[in-house]
């Protein structure tokens, strides 16, 4: 079996005149606490602190980054333990599923998944050989055994990972019971002190094409006592739920739309549109216009209540129709699309872009907009900040392209540091570590080119690793 | 005269901590046989093994990469010996044409053409000084004299270049007589053993806007005995010709469409559309829809007969209207266009994308789709693989961008190695050599960043140089 | 206070095997005269040679690169001395405005503005400490005092900066009085010999959506004696003003359109369209079509009179509606847009693209078109040349992307060297210096990769720094 080595210089520039600078910058930020202001971990983990299951349940079957790659090479999802819709559990032995991953681990060469997994294997579980067919059982047993111990419970990992705060993402219809339980725990004198915040993600009650949209509005009415089928009641219900989320610690909202379109309708137009999108059938154009209008409405509510607004546009969800029919959402078939921002954001920015107290954090899956559209917009509008390289671009080369293409026009201070945006809890330190290494390498390169002094880079390294995220998200 | 030097370290990373790794990786792949699974050499060369003509006929007038650059700086095509339509040959002395190239060779600084030509000059013809005005005649004579010798016949060059297999591209209307002659030669005990395969390129009978489309259908009817003006007969004729091509050794089809649009019509819709596109005049929309539908049909036939399907979309052909009128096709005026894939490919992929036994190799001229669309699609769909950096991007920087932007999301194993896609036979080893150098340099960089071990890079170098192409094209 | 250091190796590659080559190349071009063939300095400066005002008036309030960044972080434009429309001057103390810049100078880390300003501080004003709160007054006094001296008059700076020729940009309605004054001065035996040319920028009389378009046509009629509301008279007026500009030394025209659309209408179509766009209200489509048609008309006039044609497409002007209402144009809110060239330029190129005596210099704000569209177009059409990395891309990384993505397909000789395109006069040497450093670093890298010989790179360095601009603009 081959040794598994996480080299201390990994991801640093190779140039001998640059690497030592990167090392020095990184040394000062490697140990900073993790601010995780946006992601998809499950608050239940921290509320109930139950052990995770076996290696496959933890690291393989829930991670569509991982199984999409196996699938792309002809391995069926069933073979690794995924369950088709309506199926009542899998008959696949999790150890057998793990072996498939091990036998095909060469497929991940060069991918961020490989880097994150290797960190989890080496740093979280202490494994010292590479994952391959020969080490599959060693891996499976080591990981599964560890997960049964106290040290691998969610709260213990949170503490060990040096997380200062982590944010989950919930629907307005969520009762936030887990967050309430965590807050109660926080309040106990000898209780666990981890901070697990929620974020207000209203897509299920804003997107007329969301599964169960009208049911969701009914639930929203029930929850709030407002008539969510009446436009004014609908807005009041949003305000009420936002206030509830804020009272539970939320500092941000999040909006995952197919495009970046915004609109700023008159009340009369909005009411008429709302009547149409809450009817039996909705046209694509009406759905798009309503989503667009609601982004501007949400920005207005953020001006009122101070919640930071995140926009995540540009994914074609569930591109693989037959896979979606069989397995449902989040199966690795969401594909980025070209996304236009200049015209799309203008209605919202014309209305609220000059508000210095509003923060809109914009993400993109379309790197072509970095230098062309997003950096110029963020380098001008007080309300607009740029989220880090997102999703497939949350990778060493992706982050380098982000800094290379954003920095000269937007500067560093119109960006908001790093967030991991993941449900793979164990990979969170690895992801932040990659970001810190890449940012330190980037800064070191510019120091070596005499574009800034090393003391400036050292300040920036801390800002990018820690301070900017904390400040932008008001944490 | 200045010396002509092909430095052994050319195109390797300059970083002293990376270059030695690149050298080691390259050393192990430099001598591997050439797999050339897609290109446009003329099978007649290998069937008849006649000598090539003079230096200008071989290297200047047929190569639109070369003469487009001269043309862009105001040199007329007539001056270098190209013949306008209907003209009966050129009165230009080929030596004079060659002198024009020599005098303007500085224009090629920094271009891949310069690199390929210098390889041909130095390695194929043994020239030791740079091409410039002063060396024009030396070059012309050296090359022209060599071409008259046995060692420069097509088969001798094939053997000397260490080509294992080369694929040409033919219309379904081609009788493949040259390929038959080569197969017969292969079968002779002491015959030449070179493998020259064909690929099925049905654009002339699929694209309703192809010159002579209806004539082509008539010929297709004649060839097959099917009524190619009847939709069912038309499909049967395709099946028959595909079977014939396969019987002659073809393992792949190739489709050069203006866009990546696919469609999946019902039989009734397809029949009605076919009636319209085979009529006297065809609308742009109908032509586009028929091409789109036929890509899906061809994928279906590939599922049946196992032929690998290549798609080459995104060129605006013959952009220069007056040049096209005077000189015809392939005169350096084909210009890449922005190309959308996410919506375009969905009909085909929804129908056949999950077929693990189907291989669709997709090329693009639009690098913006690398990280955004193509890598995510290929990193998910079992049927989809990514062709190498194509055409203008078949260049050192173009290949680097390809690897940089594709690898993290698609991995290496959803790509298919290198192909040269050229009709410039003598440049084929140079092109493969450039690709091997760039890939080894790319891998060396990642080794030096500790993103993989050197033994992994060594495996990958062989895969990218040889194995992946052989496997993907079933050679 | 921290020292301000302009390191002699700044912006060179850091690789120890490349940097010495870059140094050698740069040494030979650092002192070459500046050719500034396109920009927006004020000819009045050179005609009247009056002193500039204080530090803020010179460097802060007119430079939207600088104040947009402050604004993006919540600093109001009023606070730094900008005056809303209709306001009669500012009550802000320029020293107080300067202090705001000083206190927030960290925002500029990593931006080209920081690099240009630091050059102006260190090289033009001899400052030896960094700009920060503690040095704000020292800076303000040093700069303001210097500006009152003879050595900082516009002509003295022109001479000191080693400018060989500088081009401004004027409307056809301009009487070019300042240029006339400069020419008269040039003619005096002991007069100042600086060359300050104009360029013909007809947007105000070509774009039907330009503020005051019909008034402008009235003025054009008055100036020329032609009826500029009649299409033939309108064209004659253009010819007359172009001839006047040429007689005053202009060698170029410039066209700033929202898109790159061109059209080639018949006379009858053009006359009918002209009647519509000169009427009371104009549709967006008619305005676009007229601009498109006029680009082709202007190209035709350039074939006649030999003026070089520049096209600057792709900016969404005045994106921030409320800021525009309050402060007007050029306030940092012009945002680049995706720009299509392949279809857009075809009408013009079909008509005039094969004219070897015509030079069209094309700029873009959309880097995605570099390798995909512009390099292939310029690598084919004799009339087309590529302007340098423009605007936000006039930056170290922007220039590197330009060379990286353009060179392999367009070559170096279809580009036209550098131009600064600025109204910030003092930054001009800094901008040319950045371009020379980046180009030398780029060439050094390719030498070190053995893609060209060092003597070839040395020739190219001079071409890119000096010769190409001079030749392309016929200076």
From TrEMBL, chains A, B, C:
Pfam hit, one: UxaC
Catalytic reaction(s) noted: aldehydo-D-galacturonate = keto-D-tagaturonate; D-glucuronate = D-fructuronate
Molecular function via GO: glucuronate isomerase activity
Listed pathway(s): Carbohydrate metabolism; pentose and glucuronate interconversion
EC numbers for this chain: 5.3.1.12
Record keywords, A-Z: Isomerase
Top-rank EC class of the record's enzyme: isomerase
Protein name from the UniProt record: Uronate isomerase
Organism: Sphingobium xenophagum
Organism lineage: Bacteria, Pseudomonadati, Pseudomonadota, Alphaproteobacteria, Sphingomonadales
